[in-house]
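Is adenosine-5'-diphosphate placement plausible here? Inputs below.
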Amino acid sequence: MKLAVYGKGGIGKSTTSCNISVALARRNKKVLQIGCDPKHDSTFTLTGFLIPTIIDTLQTKDYHYEDIWPEDVIYSGYGGVDCVEAGGPPAGAGCGGYVVGETVKLLKELNAFDEYDVILFDVLGDVVCGGFAAPLNYADYCVIVTDNGFDALFAANRISASVREKARTHTLRLAGLIGNRTAQRDLIDKYIENTPIPVLEILPLIEEIRISRVKGQTLFEIAESKDSLNYICDYYLNIADQIITCPEGVVPQETQDRELFTLLSDFYLAKKDNEISNVSAEEKLDIVII
Ligand code: ADP
Ligand code: MG
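Reply from A.M.:
I modeled the complex. C-alpha cells:
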C-alpha cells in the first residue's frame, strides 16, 4: 500500500508520519518512509540524524544509477522503519515533481519499490503544483494533517482538489483528515459539513510530542522508558489500525475558495462573538484590546 501524507508546512506531517510508520511496523508491516519535503528532515525522528538525500547522492554519482546501492540511499530507522529523503530541487530552480520522479525511478531500479507492505510519502501541501502533487500518482491513499484553523484547512481543501483530480485517472482515495495540535475540532467539523471527509484522529498539542522532535526520537522510543506516554502512542496506533483495514475513504469534492473563505470566517466570527457575549464587560475590553 502506498500512502501520501499531506498538509500545510509546519502542521506536524513529519512528526505524525514517523509515528504512524512505527505504529505500522508495530503491526508487523514492512515500512518505507520517503520524505518529499525540500526541508529533508522528514525521517529525522526515526534515524536521529539528517540522512543524505537521493538528489545529493545522484549528483555525487553523476546520475549513474548503476553505481548506487540501496545502502547509499535507504537508511534503517527506529522500529525497523526504512527511510529515504528525496531532497529538494535547487532553490529557485527545478521542480519538486522531478525530484519525486527521480526518487521513485531509483527505488524501482534498486528493486526496493515493491518490497514494502507500506510506503509512506511525507509531502508538503502549501503549494499543490504538479510537482508536489506527484506522489499522488503513486499513492493508493492520501491522508491530510490539519489543525482547527483557517490556513491549514485552506491547504487541506487544495489538497482535496488534487486528490479529486488524480482520482480521475487512477484508484486514489482520501482516507481522511488527522487533526493535530488541537483539542478543538469545530472549524474542522464546519469544513467537513461542506466537503465530507472522514476524521481518523484528533491529536491535541502535547509537550512531549514537541520535545520528541528536538530529541530526534519518535514517541514510541521515548515511551520505552516512560510508560505514562503510552497513551500518546495509542493515537498513532489507532490511525495505523484504520489504514491497515484499507478504509473506503472518499474522493472529495472540494469547496470553492470564496465559499470556503465565507464559510470559515463567518463561523469563526460567530464563535468569537459568542465568546465575547459570555464574558464580563471588563474581560470584553481585554479581548477587544488584544
Ligand atoms: P511539518 O512536517 O508539517 O513541517 P513537523 O512534523 O516538522 O511539521 O512539526 C512541526 C513542529 O510541531 C515540530 O516541532 C513538532 O515537534 C511539533 N508538533 C507536531 N505535532 C505536535 C503535537 N501534536 N503537539 C505538540 N507539538 C507538535
Ligand atoms: Mg516535515
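Short version: Strands lie at 2-7, 31-35, 75-76, 82-85, 118-122, 141-146, 173-180, 199-203.
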